Amino acid sequence: METKTEENIKILSYNILAQSLLIDSLKLKKEEISEISYLNIDYRFDKIFEKILELSPDICLFQEYENNGKLKKLFKTKNLSYEIIFKKRPGNHEEGCAIVYDKKKFRLEYYSALELRSENLKNYKYSKKKGSPNLYNKENVATIAVLESYKTSFYYLIICSHLLFNNNRGDIKLGQIYQIIQTVLLIKNYYKNINITTIFGADLNSTEKSAIYDYITKEKLDVEFLIKNYLSGQTNDNYISTESQYKDNSLWYNEIINTYPKFDKNKIILLTKKYFIGDEYDDDSENKNGLILENKMVMKSFYKEKNGKEPKCTSYSKTFRGTFDYLFYNTSYKIDIQKVLDIPENINKLPDKDNPSDHFPLFVEFNISNS
Fold it and tell me: What is the predicted pLDDT for the residue at 134?
């Protein structure tokens, strides 16, 4: 009989608003930003650090993190044993996604960074056409780590990501999430003899009423009836049509399933399963009637499991107010959610003198046990 083993884990996920994005995000001029004291980078990082000290998380997932050394210096002032894994967005960007973990509590088993781009696109017909767009020429990333707890020897697969913002390009976001999930499945298969709990913190730039959220939390999506421009829920929360969208959707569906993640460390290339019926995609089909995206790792939301719903609003901007930020998990272990951080609802604007970002942080504390 297996001995019962359990531990308490605290996770913080937070889009901290990169200093380099203040002008674009807040629609302010450089001179206006310099005149607002609470937008000063040192002030903002002090506030972020205060939140870390208040919550004392074991793992932090930061979106829009800039590797400028400020958090490291603040960690040193309090003798905190945090280690930072950072992946900068490709191209002309200073920010990206970071996983911060307590190295006294966890051993880093593996880490990688995934650029959500077409790293190994198969040469199907339409991609050869002149001017054919590649859906994945976007500069979004995911940072990934496998951590082992020193206390329990439990393994945690941690993912931090920030998807494309564009209101009308939920098709790209769906492809990005597909790529992340397939990546996680590949890594879990590599560690198939170990029971791994997956934790995913992200700014999805998608609402709860989106194909992106549904794909993460459900077993499959029938792509044939999806309305491309509505997939992320930012402009319309009804993304499913009563009529077939087969002609419009088959092309981007094929690009999704033919985009494989790569990993330098273990030299693994994921070979996805294809369900599209056509002249050259009938090689391993399980569904003869449509375009089916399957999710073999359905995740639950910590907030929804604890409160019965997602927060009302996690992100404030001049173009959108609503929930973009989520904390998900998948495990075969028993999870007992102790608490989640309340999200204020009566706020007129962000950031302000008390809140250093245009997003609120998400936080969960839970007990996990093997029986």
Answer: 60
